[in-house]
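As a warm-up, study this chain.
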Amino acid sequence: MMRWKCTTGIALLFLWLITTTSNASGAFVGINIGTDVSNFPSASAIVSILQAKKIEHVRLFDADHQMLTALAHTGIEVMVSVPNDQILRVGQSRSDAADWVNKNVAAFVPATNITSIAVGNEILTALPNAALVLIPVLRFLQAALLAANLNSQVKISTPTSMDLISKPFPPSTAQFNSTWNQIMSQYLQFLKSTGSVFMLNAQPYYGYTKGHGVFPLEYALFRSVNPNTQNVDPNTDHVYSNMFDAMVDAAYYSMQGLNFSGIPVVVTETGWPWLGASNEPDANVDNALAYNTNLMRHVLNNSGTPSQPSVQVSAYIYELFNEDLRNGPVSEKNWGIVFPNGTTTYSLTFERLPLSNNGESTGPVGMFCVANSSMPVSALKQGLDWACGPGSANCSVIQPGKPCYQSDNIVAVASYAYNDYYHKTQASGGTCNFNNTAMLTSTDPSFGSCIFAGSSGSNSSRVGPTAFGPVGPDNLGTTTKCDGRALIYTIALVVLCLV
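Now compare it with the structure written out below.
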């Protein structure tokens, strides 16, 4: 009996190691770092922010040497960019391209983990006059990487706008704008021959707002949609539960339209603005938090798309800082997840989100929905009654004698109920409002043995520690030694799987 338990334990350890290894090599979520920011932080401060938030993949819109130096020895994977205003110069000759690679890539690797070069940003739609040099730039840069023996480590591509795809839904009928077919064919052939990825800027926020009600908000935010309003591709019968997948599949089908397949898509920009003007009501914290949190879950679950279920899709969130110097509406300036001083606009974790005890995803870790202490007690009481009633929040722990009960603190009691409701329903559309008596905060309101959902180390609406297994007669006061051979076999299997 003891030997069976030992072998089972080792087997479970083996499975855990394999799962961990698989996750580590799967899809990822990175971050864009734009520079149109007043009071732009120092490179070292930015790296500290990245490390604190456990961000392991970044996309730079240039090849800033201070940033590349600060990123050295961090292990963070870096995408550098040839800015749009340098495309014409770099595309003039092989020597200019070689000079760019030597100064901005070769000079920093291997200390800085540069893994890709983005040539411009949405060149064909944003800078049409540079279209004729796009293919030469790609080829010249590839030749420079080959000469520097970096072609295996560093891949080259160019971020493409969804505007290049005509009528992206249904995805099966999507096609690239025929104006660019010749260039796109050469571009896709380049990606195919070099083992590079198709870079796509996919922003469901714009797909939703420009659709003027064609698509429900839930569809754009990865939230559950009414089965009666699901988006089904009539040509393939693929069901699209979110706009992100539909956009990615539109790119896959557009490539197929030019007879190319097997080129993976990486989403180089996606996200949601957290602040907008009065005529931009959907640009708010709740929606930004919902989109990016649900994006994390979707991507880090190694999910493919309906048309490519076995092909993982990685994504870079747009963006780290609000770019307040950008032109355009208020929403255009407010996509950032942190302020330049390091404080958060809203809390977002770049680690795999924990699951609740019933296997369902919880709300965002590190973000809490709490009662606003400046609101009247009567309003908080009304919100509390709703949360514990129709809202179905777990209010048992705020009853007299329970860990979260405070007889003279309606704010604390209401905060627990508000937060519990929010974490249970956020993924399916629940918000932190309660008739304007609640607000989101990254400050953990947990106290003593009263643990709020979303607290670090908490994975559900629970109070107190969680036992890892039952304690019974079989494992009280008993020391079991594992069979050495079983341990050796398990280690050998792990090593084989890691090779």
